[in-house]
Design brief:
This protein has 196 residues and is an alpha+beta fold. It is built from five helices and nine strands, in the order ββααββββββαβαα. It has two domains: 5-111, Beta-Lactamase, CATH 3.30.450; 123-194, no CATH class. It binds zinc ion.
C-alpha cells in the first residue's frame, strides 16, 4: 500500500501504463477487470463529472506546457474510509504524463468528527472561457485546487458557470457592437452566470 500508485497517459490522454501498485489498489477496492483492459482507454472516461474533467484538462495542459510537475492533495473515499492522498502529475517526453498517487492517511468514517474545511465556499464560479475559478477572487484552476483543497471536497462543492472580468473585457473588445448592445451582452453574461 505504501508504493506510489502510478499510471501514465499519452498525449491523447489514453492510458499507456499502470503500475503493479495501481492494480493492487484497484483489486483491494473491489475492481475485477484485468489491468490490461484499461490500456488504451481515455482517462477522462474514468473521471466523473464535467467540471472535474474540465479541471483535470486544465491541469494537464498546464503541466504539458510548463513541463513542471504539479502536486496537490485530494480525497479518494470509499464507503468505509476517508483516504487522504497526494497526486503528482509529472511531465514526460512526447506530452505524456505520469500520475503518482501516494496515500497520506486512511481514516474510518466513524472516527471522523464534523470536520469541514472552513475556507471552502459552498459555491464556486467557473469562468466558461478560461476555466478560472472564483471564490473571493478569480484564481487559476491549479492555484484554486491548492488553496481550497478542491479535490479533497469535490462531493460538497457546487459550481456555477460565468465569465471572469478579464474574459468579459476581452470578448467584448472583439465585438463591434454599438455601446447599447454591449451593455445588453453584459446582462446576458450575468444571467448566464446564474445557470449552473
Ligand atoms: Zn475567464
Amino acid at each position: 500500500m505504501n508504493a506510489p500508485i502510478d499510471y501514465t497517459i499519452d498525449k491523447h490522454n489514453r492510458i499507456t501504463a499502470l503500475s503493479d501498485s495501481w492494480h493492487q489498489f484497484y483489486t483491494e477496492n473491489g475492481g475485477t477487470q484485468p489491468s490490461d483492459s484499461f490500456i488504451g482507454q481515455d482517462l477522462f472516461q474514468s473521471i466523473a463529472g464535467k467540471e472535474v474533467q474540465m479541471l483535470y484538462g486544465t491541469l494537464f495542459r498546464h503541466v504539458r506546457s510548463t513541463q513542471v510537475a504539479l502536486t496537490f492533495p485530494y480525497c479518494c473515499n470509499s464507503d468505509k474510509v476517508r483516504r487522504d492522498m497526494v497526486m503528482t502529475i509529472l511531465p514526460q517526453a512526447h506530452e505524456s504524463l505520469t500520475f503518482s498517487n501516494a496515500v497520506q492517511s486512511i481514516t474510518p468514517w466513524g472516527k471522523i468528527a464534523e470536520v469541514v474545511k472552513p475556507k471552502l465556499p459552498a459555491e464556486l464560479m467557473l469562468c466558461s472561457w478560461c476555466n478560472k475559478i472564483k471564490a473571493d477572487t478569480w484564481l487559476e484552476p491549479q492555484i484554486a485546487i491548492l488553496k481550497y483543497g478542491l479535490f479533497e471536497s469535490m462531493d460538497t462543492v457546487k459550481f456555477t458557470h460565468g465569465i471572469c472580468p478579464r474574459c468579459q473585457t476581452r470578448i467584448l473588445s472583439t465585438l463591434t457592437f454599438p455601446e447599447s448592445a454591449k451593455s445588453s451582452t453584459t446582462k446576458d453574461n450575468q444571467t448566464r452566470s446564474k445557470c449552473a
